[in-house]
Amino acid sequence: MTNIVVFAKLVPDLVEELEIADNGIALDMEWLRLIINEFDNHAVEQALILKERTGGEVTVIAPQAEGVDEMLYTIAAKGADRVMMLKGDFEAGVNNHALARAFATTVQTYQPDLILTGVQANDDLDGAVGPLIAEYLGMPYIGYISGVSMAGDKLSAQKEYPGGLIAEMEVALPAVLGIQAGEEPPRYVAISKVRQMMKTATIDEYDVAELNTSGGVTANRMYAPEVSERAEMLAGDEDEVATRLVEIFKEAGLV
Amino acid sequence: MAANSISRSPSFTQEFYQSLFKVIDGENIKTCLQCANCSGVCPFGHVMDFPPGRMISWLRAGIFDEVIKADSVWMCVSCYACVEVCPKNIPLTPGLMTRAKEELLLAGNIPTELQSALEFSQRYGNPLGESPRKRADWAKGLETEVPIMRKLNRPVDVLWFVGDYASYHPRVQQTTRAFFKVLTALGVDFAILGPEESSDGDSQRMAGERGLFEMLAEKNAKVFEKYEFGEIITTDPHAYNAIKNEYPTLGIEYPVRHYTEFLVERIDDIKALFKGNGEMRITYHDPCYLGRANGIYDAPRELLEAIPGVELVEMPHSRTTSLCCGGGGGGMWLDGFQWEKAHVRLSDWRVKEAVDTEASILAVACPYEPPRFEDSVKTVAGAEKLIVKDIIELLAEAI
Fold first, then answer.
1. What is the nearest CA distance from B116 to chain A, expressed in angstroms?
2. What is the pLDDT of residues B196-232, one digit of tens each?
3. I need a labelling partner for B321 at 20 to 30 A (CA). Which of A123, A140, B314, B338 fits?
4. Mean of per-residue pLDDT scores for chain A
């Protein structure tokens, strides 16, 4: 039976204005609202599609954060067999290196055949989490995947390239895939089913004693894009603007 | 949209059929004459594989899973036109069509564009996907501060339930500000909930998401409980319908009125405030959830006729036969889906009728309508000069 494990995390929801914390190197978490990383949501969908198509079990693991219970119950209501939370001090300066190490340690007990995660997230400061997981587990990794089919211990994945190119790649299992898009959009699950799950499902917990952030990056300063005054707005009618534009091109030696 | 998780068991049809009896007057479905009035009057009946009457006949034949697999139920805009013409008083909109949507939704078989609105409602408390913290942002920049219950910290006569589109939609915010102006001019003691207010949930309920409706209703109930107020007033007929007819079934009971009912009672005070505003030929569109769903037809007309210089003319479809703008029952969030099926917008039909009356203004009383009708004004030939205004805007302009 195929054992599929998904790593999913909550990221800042851009519906709210982002604010910089007083220390000047991170986001202010107090007003931040968190939402499932969109690509991780697609990874969950892809896992459920694979399960429905070829059988197997889906386990979803997520690091502790405000709202992670709701996220995991929703995923359980969609059809995941097991949901699990990594418990630890993730708010204090965690990075993807630390998350990948914590996940890699935990996931080994499940003996996964296939690990799926979002190809990227809006809070990836130190690279995507997928390749790091693959490195720590000694597994192959393919990213930018938008379709997966499995046969025995082989897996065929569609990898997206720029310019509309798609490659079919075969990989031996176990492997890690970074999902760009599930084959279908993430499904809807009725609130009544989520509420039912909150009463019946259990979120397994795994204590992460120590977070090892080594290999990551250090933020020296976090700031909103600053306005520069290098842009010149051309005013006037079309002829005036065009004439001035040609002059500028000439001045710059472009024409 | 895979419908494979819908139960195919023979008992499914029976269970579904039985569930319809639980709706008020639900057992009337047994007396359906198959007259097809419902299917004929349905604004999208012509593109449905299974309009209400045919749904009932297949239900009776015990092959309902075929019906539920077809996605024609997502064409239903919950406008109550079928209920209005049914000679056997079958609750077709609140019963049959809504229950069918619920079954599809439970099976996860819903159009993607509807899915976003439902997810937004759950996450942010509004279907537009806006920040809940910005719910009172429509009041920014007004000369007078809009009183918010949490800051006011005292009982008020009127709790103004603003609603989703009235809070966030840039066009409808104009209506909201107009209502603020009128309430202030009348010296009404009122306040809003601001960021504490959540979607009333009624259109989500009619789109089949009962659980979400209950969740939103409970959130609002918790906030209502915190404060003392005499009654709730809203400019949104969907919020009005929810609080008046549906919240009580969840034990949430508060007196509520639509603004047209509230203002018509103060018509003499309003008249005293009017200045002349020129001659206007106006036609009025009855919103489904004010008219057919709640029987309020006269108050909006009385308000309009009270405005100096107004000549009120009726469209061929008015009062109980009013044409839906297309926004109800999830229609606000299914424009793309419904266009693909029907290649027509219901709001276009309505705007054509308004143009034929030679009125210069199409008056409305629901926040779904100004954006929908104004979109149609841009595309319907001959409608270029038609102005769409909520009654409250016309009142505010005349003061």
1. 9
2. 999 999 999 999 999 999 999 999 999 999 999 999 9
3. B338
4. 94
Q: Give contacts of A15 with chain B, Cβ < 8 Å.
A: 124, 129-131
Q: Using the beta-carbon criterion (under 8 Å), do A15 and B131 form an inter-chain contact?
A: yes
Q: What is the phi/psi pair of residue A114, to 5°? A: -145, 135
B6 shares contact with chain A (CB less than 8 Å): no
Q: Is B153 on the interface with A (CB under 8 A)?
A: no
Supply the pLDDT for residue A229: 81
Name the residue ranges covered by the structural domains of chain B: 10-106, 112-264, 267-398
C-alpha to C-alpha distance for A70 and A153, rounded to whole angstroms: 34
Q: How far is CA B382 from the centre of its chain?
A: 27
Count of H-run helices and E-run strands, chain A: 6, 11
Please check whether the domain covering B267-398 is classified as CATH 3.90.660: no
Ranges of H-type helices in A108-153: 129-137
Domains B10-106 and B267-398 share a fold: no
Separation of alpha carbons A101 and A123, rounded Å: 17
Q: Tell me the CATH class for B10-106.
A: mainly alpha
Distance (Å) from the C-alpha of residue A249 to the closest C-alpha of chain B?
Answer: 40
More confident residue, B4 or B268: B268
B205 touches chain A (CB under 8 A): no
Nearest by CB to B215, from A35, A187, A191: name it: A191
By C-alpha distance, which of A151, A187, A173 is closest to A49? A187
**Chain A: residues touching B (Cβ < 8 Å):** 15-16, 35, 185, 187-195
User: Scanning every residue of chain B, which has its alpha carbon at the shortest distance from the alpha carbon of A185?
Assistant: B112
- Axis crossing angle, helix B112-124 with helix B335-342, rounded to the nearest 10: 160
* Domains in chain A, CATH or no CATH each: 3-207 (3.40.50.620)
CA B225 – CA A77 distance, rounded (Å): 31
Confidence (pLDDT) at A29: 83
Residue B263 Cα distances to B234, B269, B275, B302, B309, angstroms: 11, 9, 17, 10, 19
